[in-house]
What we know:
By secondary structure, the chain is mainly α. The protein has helices spanning 5-28, 31-48, 60-81, 101-118, 123-133, 139-146, 150-171.
Amino acid sequence: MDQQPADWLSALVDQYGRMVLTTAYRILGRREEAEDVLQDVFLKLLGTGNRRAGGGIRDWGAFLRTMASRSAIDRLRRKRKEGRDLALARGNMPSPQANDPGRIVSRQGQASDLRQAIAELPARDAEVFSLRYLDDLSYDQIAAQMRLSVNQVGVILHRARRRLREILDRRGVEQGE
């Protein structure tokens, strides 16, 4: 690969940029923050200045999705630590039923509560949960991407769901089915 760093990065952005943006948006719920994650992910790649590292990466899609998930989860954690209210995400969540404002507000509030709870999970648990339930990856896909066994994915998801229930119960948040 005898490309300039900008050409190499541009090709990755063209091929995987939308996927990185979508992954970050599903976790954060705000397009502006997802765009920041998109920029962060590709700037980190450029900042490494190490194109040869790409030689060891077998699946750029999985690698970049993982980077996007981690960056978005880190962003959630920073916001929680800084005491910022994630209520801003409520205004940008897609509404499943535009004609029922009460239901929209309820679902948006639940999404915000879930984002805050995900930020309290251990990093690996949050990442696996996000890949399964926000990116809709199968256990097999998560296992391959995270270099885990399918059984480990199941255990992590079970633990993450249990912990999220505890966090949401502690806060008195209703859990929708």
